[in-house]
Methyl-accepting chemotaxis transducer
Amino acid sequence: MVADEVRALARRTQLSTENIKQIVDRLVAGSTQSVAAMGHSRVRVEENVAKSASVEQTFDRIAAAIREINQITGQIASATEEQTRTSESITRQTAQLNDFNRETSLIVNQNRERLGHLEAAFGDLQRALTRFREG
C-alpha cells in the first residue's frame, strides 16, 4: 500500500509539475509578447515624438509667418493712411486752385471791362484832341 501511495503521490507530483510547466510556459510566452508589444509601442512613441517635433516646427514657422503678415499689414495700413492724407491734401489744393482760377477769371473779366472803358475813354480823348487841333 505504501508503494501504491508513493506511486499515486509521484503521479500527482508529475501532473502538478506538468501543470506548473505549462503555466510557466504560458507566462514566458505572455511575457515575450508583452516585451515585443512594449518594444513596438516604444518605436511608435518615438515616431510620434519625432512627428510632434516636426509639427511644432511647422507651427513655429506658421506663427513667424503670421507675425510677418501682421507687420506687413501694419505697414500697409500706415501707407494707406499716408495716401489718404496726401489725397486729402491734393483735394484741398485742387479746390484752392479752382478758387484761384475763378478769382483770376474774375480779375481778367474786370480788366477786360476796364480796358474797354479805357479804350472808349482814349477814343473820346483822341477825338477831343483832334477837334481841339482842328478847331
Notes: Helices lie at 2-134. The chain has a mean pLDDT of 92.
